[in-house]
Amino acid sequence: MTAVQEPSTAVRTVTATIDGREVTVAEGTTIFDAAKQVGVDIPVLCHNERYDPVGVCRMCVVDTGSRAYAAACVRPCEDGMQVQTATPEVERSRAVLTELLMADQPAPEDDRKHTTTRDNLLFDLADGYAVGQDTLPRGSGRGTDLSNPVIAVDHDACILCDRCVRACDDVQGNDVIGRSGKGYSTRIAFDLNDPMGKSSCVTCGECVQACPTGALTNKPIGGIPIRPREELDQVESVCPYCGVGCALTYNVDRERGAIVFAEGRDQPGSQSRLCVKGRYGWDYSASPQRLTMPLIRIDSSYPKGPLSADVRGDRNGDNDRGRAGAGGGRSGGGRDNRPGKDRGRKPGGLVDYDEVMPHFREATWEEALDLVARRLKEIHAEGGPGAIAGFGSAKCSNEEAYLFQKLIRTGFGTNNVDHCTRLCHASSVAALFEGVGSGAVSTTYGDVANADVVIITGSNPTANHPVASSFFKQARRRGTKVIYVDPRASTVAEHADIFVQLKPGTDVAFYNALMHEIIRLGLIDQEFIATRTSNYDELARTVADYPPERAAQITGVDADTIREVARTWGEAGAAVVYWGMGISQHTTGTDNARCLIALCSITGNVGRPGTGLHPLRGQNNVQGASDAGLIPMFYPDYQGVDVDATRLRFEEAWGTPLDPNRGLTVTEIVKSALEPGGVRGMYMLGENPFLSDPNTNKVRKALSALDFLVVQDIFFTETAEFADVILPATSYLEKDGTYTNTDRRVQLGRKVLDAPGQARPDWEIVQDIARRMGLDWHYESPSDVFDEMVELMPSYANLRWDNLGSTGKLYPNADPEHTDGTIVMFDDRFNTDDGLAHLVPAQWLPPRELPDADYPMVLNTGRLLEHWHTGSMTRRSFALDAISPVAEVYMHPKDAADRGLAHGERARVRSRRGTIELLVRVSHREQLGNVFIPFHFREAAANLLTIDEIDPYGKIPEFKFCAVQVEAL
């Protein structure tokens, strides 16, 4: 048998001479890039190394000895080529071009870039060539567009270099910007020549970052003037919003103590990209509503209960309105006589401080901390360890998450500590840990570039993970087939090769049918199954009961589409799946994730580039907080609290006996607070369960029933209305710490601003409480905590504060001094005890609450691009609130028409648990019979409606399915 010769991997090179300097480069290298290698700078306007070269401005022309000059940004080097980059003739050509371009430019004193950041590239060239603006006649002008709240458009400053077009299309994949008009009237256009603020622009600011002139510039935010970078401090940090963890630089005005503007910076993951939240959503930290002093509830505001009309439910018409028990039966009948009672304020997006602050008095830190420690000690002494619980936060740093769980476990002897992973990816983690032995992703979002096929399921990444979605869109343009599976036709559907709009709650049936077809067609990877998996036969028997015809009846997806998806996936050389909370936030969430694990495993799509399993993490540090042990069943690095050897190791490290039993989860803690002998005292760090947890009426009763609640936060949240003590923390921007993104990238978040008033970093507050609990803690800085964490977390081995650098490191990482870390995990074995992927078959089960005649529609909840979690940060950001200021229910046009509702009218949405009122948005993205409500809006809190049934394994609530009715007011 003749051996097949492998194709040569040798890189062909060419040698050219540029301004007398010889350079050897790979074939295809442009003159511009080659010149840069030998230290020759060629001026450019349209070119930027982040975008594909187009050569439209001709500023970079060089003499190659041909009849016409060549654009260096697009012309490749040739062997033996002689290049002159700055002959008198070439320079004269550039000077004339600069003069022509300057003729229509605004005067320097009127140019929006020159008068702010002072980095107008055209003006810099004009200075270099001594070109003025008064030598040629000026046109009549093309106008300005100030319709976007944070971006200014000056068409007179535009040179039609198309950088903004390429930034929008080729990098972000939004396809908003093009050209309109002819001749002199040609200008950049948004959609069909709409004003920018009325177009489909998502305000990511990539065009501003790309623009070389004053045509696209940032507007000042919060009255802080934009100044040149050299007059500002640059602080490298990480975005505080979603799990993508984009690297950015804050430009800081130290005189005013404020951020002036933010820019994306290079990092292997985000590659200088940002979304609207990262680029423009940082001013929340300067809100006048920041907590700046410790607060203690006054005696006259006991018995406890909700303080504002919104939190009492007086404006929502929920089922508890007017009942004693809006405060859990503890509020008494004198609620209306409290100071700050409802003054008839219209429903709004923020807590009315005039309404709630009279119930508290300012205190010193010593008094507040002493009271916290004393009351929690008393409850612990009376009720035992089970009477105490803690909610941490995925917005806090790794170090703060680690210290918080350590305090609850060592100071109170309980594992009753959890955070919002319970509300987003707990079921994913349960399935991943069971199936592959790790709760982390097996590959990065950027690895989609190496995939032939990608399934994006139960996720709306254009809204929830916008920068990650830009990589998905780029991959599709390069040939990756995108299969999008979701009940909603979000904007991702517009970029998909196959869009599967299945009925909500039918994921198991759909993926079982895919596996049925893949097995029937013989598209499984038999070797991978035999050597890398267990329990395949049982899986095959289960999916045999799900032929496409049966699945079509369950899912609403036609059988031919199921067959097409199965064949497309099964025939792929490399395929990866990315999923979101549409998979996890179901009572069958763990089963949904089990199916995805099995789908990848039986086709061998794990452990190679372009393959794997990636649950897209929701909050900026939900991965890190989970890694650090902020969950009730695991110590740091997912080491079981009920494993004797593990517990003994942590007892030795922490110097105290530990509880051998798993603790209560977020949803179980809420339930326990309503039971005799249950949780009586809580420490709430950065969480707002009143808005984030399901069945708000139940949460209201539970919070009211607590004997003692301490809330540690940056704003007075809805949950803080039930607090006995409120501790003012620093925001993300006011402290140092590490954060782990969805890719497993551990990055440094650096202090940008000083804290307001007496606000303090969370880790310092936790340590002060720990000391009052008798713990001998003496951490001097977050780096001390990080060092201790790493010693106890094998996955983080070798990482040090000092070797994370400006771009962070992926874990696991054998040599962080020299490598970025592991992109693809499980190349030879899984992290399970036997090294195999454990395939767990699942049967389809219907959701717990189905529509009926009284509640005929299905509610799905989720996020908007501009907002974040419970809105406490984003609704205090000028840009984000200006773009998306009101709560809306998204409805199919026919559903709206059948109820006599029109776009923009107010409607009532009710479930068996509550009622809210909000505006109608007629949307073709919804299926008939389904509605979508974002959960960011306190005045129309979606979780008043949601059901608190939970997944039996991940203990995650069913946020994605409950029965509702929508009706006209």
UniProtKB/TrEMBL annotation:
Domain 4Fe-4S Mo/W bis-MGD-type: from-to ranges: 232-289
Ranges of compositional bias, category Basic and acidic residues: 311-323, 333-342
Keyword terms: 4Fe-4S, Iron, Iron-sulfur, Metal-binding, Oxidoreductase, Repeat
Ranges of residues in domain 2Fe-2S ferredoxin-type: 12-89
Chain segments carrying region Disordered: 304-351
Superkingdom in the source lineage: Bacteria
Domain 4Fe-4S ferredoxin-type positions: 149-179, 188-221
Stretches of the chain forming a coiled coil according to its record: none
Xref: Pfam families: Fer2_4, Fer4_Nqo3, Molybdop_Fe4S4, Molybdopterin, Molydop_binding
Family: In the C-terminal section; belongs to the prokaryotic molybdopterin-containing oxidoreductase family.
Name of the molecule in the record: Formate dehydrogenase subunit alpha
Protein source organism: Pseudonocardia adelaidensis
Lineage: Bacteria, Bacillati, Actinomycetota, Actinomycetes, Pseudonocardiales
Gene of this entry: fdhF_1
